[in-house]
Fold:
Amino acid sequence: MVTDVVTKLNASRRELLDLGLRNPLLNYRARVNKIDIIDNHSVDLYRFLVMENKSTTFLAVPEHEKKENEEVLSLLPDADTGLHTQFPKSDSQVIEGTQDNLSTYGRLQTKLVSEHLHTKLLGILNNAETYIEEQGVNILYLALGFLHWHESDNSDQVRLAPLILLPVSLSRENARARFRLNYTEEEITANLSLVEKLKNEFAIKIPEITDTDSFDVAEYHKEIASRIKAQSKWKVEPDEIVLGFFSFGKFLMYKDLGEDQWLDGKKPSEHQILRALLEDGFKDPPIALPDDTFIDECLSPHDNLQVVDADSTQVLAILDVKAGHNLVIQGPPGTGKSQTITNIIAESIGSGKKVLFVSEKMAALDVVKRRLDNIGLGDAVLELHSHKTNKRAVLKELERTLDLGKPAVKTAMDDIATFVSLRDRLNAYCVAVNTTILDSGVTPYKALGAYINLGDITSFPQMDFSVMSSWTQTRYRESRLAVEELQHRLEQIGVPSKNPFWGTQRTVLLPSDETKIINLLKQTETSVGLLQDHANALAAILQLGTPQTYTEVTGLCQAVFHIMDVPDFIGVQVNSSDWHLRYEDLKRLIAIGNTLSTLHQRFDGYLKPEAWEQNLEVVRQYYLTYGDRWWRFLSGKYRLANKHLARICKQPLPKEIMGCVEIIDAVQEARKQSRLYEQHEPIGKLLFRTRWKGLSSNWAELSRLLEWLASTHRDIKNNRLPTSLIEYLSRAPDLKALRSQYEVVKQDLSHQLELIEKVAMELGFHNTDGKTNENRNEIALLELPIAKQQEQLQIWCVRFNDLQALASYNLLAKQLQGLGLSTVLEVAEAWDDAAKSLLRAFDATWFGGLIDTAFKEREPLQQFERTSHEYAINKFRELDKLLFTHNRARLALQHWDHLPRYEQGELRIVKREINKKRGHLPIRQLLDKAGHAIQAVKPVFMMGPLSIANFLKPGHLDFDLVIFDEASQVKPVDALGAILRGKQAVVVGDSKQLPPTNFFDSLVGEIAEDEQNESVTVDLESILGLFAAQNAPERMLRWHYRSRHESLIAVSNYEFYDNKLVVFPSPISSETSLGLRFNHLPNTYYDRGKTRTNPEEAKALAAAVIRYAKKHPELTLGVVAFSTAQRDAIMFQLELMRRRDSSCEEFFSGHQYEPFFIKNLENVQGDERDVILISVGYGKTVEGYMSMSFGPLNQEGGERRLNVLITRARQICEVFANFTSADIDLHRTNARGIVALKNFLSYAQNRILEMPFSTHRDTDSPFEDAVIKELHGLGYMSEPQVGCAGFRIDIGVIDPAKSGRYLLGIECDGASYHSARSARDRDRLRQEVLENLGWRIHRIWSTAWFRDSKKELVRLVEAIEQAKIHWKLVDDKQSISTKSNSSTGVTTVIDRHDVDNPTLNQITVRPYVTAKLRIKLFGRELHELGSADVAAYVQEVVAVESPVHIDDVINRIAEAVGIKRVGSRIQLALNRGIEKAIRSDAIRKNGDFLWRPDASEIVVRDRSSLDAASRNLQLVAPQEIRAALKQVVNSAFSIRKDDALSASLELLGFQRVTATARELISRVVEESIQQGEFIELNGLLKLA
Structure:
């Protein structure tokens, strides 16, 4: 496994090593990007530039020497353009006034005439700046001296190799100023490639260049000359001087990746991330948080150390990094990569981590650094890239940081608590209003909107919501469809309950049924007449009125039937109401009489008549008391009772006692019933009259009479029998005639009921079980008057067709009942407005019920009040930003707290270098000797890949986190050096943007001359792609902030990101001041065969630059060409215009952080400006021919270059070309880049992509429909869903005064509001981004609108009118907005104060505390104390002084009792006490030292205040000595061993280092090294 990694790594390294003749450092040839310096000496030039730190300018050759330079001029790229002829004749004539009084070497003599010198210097200046910006290093050098060498003795070909490389910078103040050359104060170096070549192939060692101040150029050249003497043809030319581009960064990277360069344990083959990249991929656990995570649920403000705004997609990436994941962050254009990196760095600082931030692009590093500076955390950053590697500047920055005052930090706990409370409150409302109610699938927001849209429903009948409460959305839609069909049916048939056949159960009616049913109806009508006649005759017999209804006929028959069953009532008072009223008394009387008759009948044979009058209670008592005793005959009472009973009986007494008792009980019961009989007998006599015979009455007959007469009177009273019945009976009628008529009527009635039953069955008035449906309000014939029956039957015959309509209704009603919609049917059957409003009433019940349920169940909805809620939002926004301020201060304090204070070891080296006036260590050496201290001062390093290999020694400095930005442009091999120095890696970039290319190799001659064309941009794999391919976790940033107009990102989002970016709309859709523009230049041509430029297009671009510089100097500006040739043409044209007109030179030197640039598309990634001008350059030739060749766009991955190019602008992007999209013939090319170019130009010309403003989409909710309806009613035009990809404003109010502009954006609290992944996204960020784009936003809360829509509408109208005033003021100004979405924010100033720190130059340790014992001997000697007592005193000493030497323990006890000399007896007694304490586990022993049993942490103690006898190093535990050493080494980071010994002894309180002490502590050091606690490297001690 290790071998595979090393093999693959070495294969990658070989890409970096070039010791062949293509390497200009070994074989320097005449090139465009160089200037030969003549008539100068290297020694003098070195003194002038380096030692005297002066700048120099350039001298051209006189005009008459021009012919001698023709060979040189032929190398110029513009040799045939004639551009150079327009420059001044001599560089010395550029500046007006007298020539500077410079020394002889104040100017560098060249071989070029003035115009060509100027052209070359301009090109070199542009390329030098570009390389610094794009690659992060300066490669412009003044080569002092060359070695002329041959590959072999047989070779006559002379090869040139520079010897001394002096880093320089080229600059000028303005277009009319001289070019000046300065020494950059970076390291002066030998030719490292030459050093390696000569060492490996010729065994010649080139001397190193060490101290710049003492370096002797002449001696160096002589030394080299002496070392090459053996090579006969070789020579040193010390005064051969060239200004040109040289790069040995790749060689340094090659050396850096060598396995043998790294220490064991840190070797590349052992590095986990590298092994994942080169072997079988990342096997990290999956990312825990999905993309749709609601951030607030997993992000605690207490643990959050974010310092700048972060949207939810950024926060997820930050949390992943914080969780320790190696991560790929895909950041499409303008999605906030730099602010994400800023937050990741801040979180890392808060975790005490060391960070290496790497990017080839200087702009990427600078923007993060500016962000950190603006928030007060830039002090933690060390920049070691591009032009920021000046030794003095680095030391000055370290000094400034070390001298910082302590940040003042206010407590944030209360603010955090309030913030959390507000955040949770806002989230709770958002959830409450946007989560579905019950299982309905409907949120309160949608329910409120739908309910409001129903209009006035106050008069609507109520339906039962309880049957709907369990519905799902599917069930509701199914039911609603049925109700809608029902309403349509009601429009056809009218109100069902008013149909003459209402009540029918029929659902189908066959054609054959009509005749049958009509005949039945007519037959029934005839039968009704007969029944009426016969019933009238029967009533007449009874002298009753004519029966009108079936009920009366039935009652008549029942009365007759009742009469037929009458008993013989002759002699009885029939017509008395007492039969009914005193029924119970009569019934009781008959029962009593019957009981008395029964008693007499049974016992009259036993008893004499007078016996029935006797009171036998006493007799009964005696029988019961003595009757069961064997001696009863002896009892006088028993005999008396027996005698009395025998006296009244006719027969002998029964032998059984109970027989006697039974006779007595009968007499007693008869006496009782006789009394009751006497009470009730009068009513019996009154009513039964002649039929009353006293106790001899026929009780059964009387009972039958009672029941019949009582029931008759009761039925009469209850109207069940006619009142005349009694009178009729009292006349003794002829019942035979009555019976005859009764039978006729009874038969008619039975026949009629059968007919009605048939009618009911045929008309469907019965359920399927044959029973009448009691739950329907049907028309029952039996309940109608008989005359009305005939009328109803006639109506049914006439309107028979209505039965069919009602049958179809019943079929639909059955379906609704099956859906549980009985409550709807109840309303539909009787409501007059059901035919037009049933569906609205149904929806009102559904949505109203859901709203009621939501408000009952959800407290946030109950408590919602708009002003209070908006106050909470404003306070939340305020605190959200305030927490950033708190975090910034907390992190600044943490950084300050961790600044090194101990001026030993590495910090001493740093301080010494700071205090030097000259002769400073090179940065690489400084980092090697004091890197850990510098990391403590600057925990964040910002570097480019090349500077890492240059400045960081392999394995010396480690970083917890390595971050790559613009990683799609970094080759894997270029990134490996950074990765090897980190424990965790985060690569940030965009796989849809520029891949790594060989473009910059042409600048330093690392590709052949004939390859210097657009083909050098061959795509290579990037470190971003490698991480992704090896299964590293991945996040994508989606919020697009950069573009202030959607047209600037529309094509990119559509072509490359599948419209997944969240792009915020502009309030201006057709405003020409912002967005994408196309400039067609048909009168220009592409010079395809010669210059490969479009000169006139270049002039148009230059003119446009001047125009912006004059009219809009406040805007930042960049120009991008498709090719380097076109870029140079534009640059030269602009140079001419600037020289002719210097009025806008201030613009070109302004905008410190975003200066004007002219670049080609290969090096524009990472840049952004307010305005971008694009020059295609390619196009139609003068003959009108148009090739389909567009340089790098034709290459594989060309579309990625276009994606970068078209997404650089924030406000305006202008495209210049001499052709249109229609001229691109896709039949002649299948290059993906050309297809994308055609689409881009087409969109720039006529917006053929979907216009990202009014989407013409429906609203997101009925609530928005209601708002729009109200606005339209007031005359305001509005559109829903305004925006493009990813985000849309709910409603846009159209500005009638300006086409294509929106007065106001209206945001509601619906699905879009709820879709936000955090409260910050929802309640702050989105609105801030929109307002930054120019929108005026008004928020409508659905809950507030529902409660008081009129009040909320007034607020809305006021907001619209205020917006009109705002836009009028904007129009009056007529200026382009200069707000920038990519702003690094308002600067935060961290309050600091000076701190008097007495421990600034030392490590704080505790003073040694001795135990103070109080020992009472009570007349005994010390040695007489028991072992337990001594052990207690020993334990007391150890508790205070652990670890403590045994001798010190003995001395403490002796001193406590005043003994100065410890004899053998005392020694023995104390030893016994110590042993006892050890055996009892009160203390523990380690060597000669005693410890507390629970001692774990070793505390270093200062013994300087102890007496001389106690200040003995041998009395200090080795563990404490080791702890002191650790503190010293840790504080010093690394330190010389002798210094560590001295400093450790000083910590322990020993001022003098004796030989014994040195030997002892050295032994501890050696043991610690052997145990792996320390490592010794180059004489320095470091923690392992």
User: Anything to note?
Assistant: The longest strand covers residues 159-171.
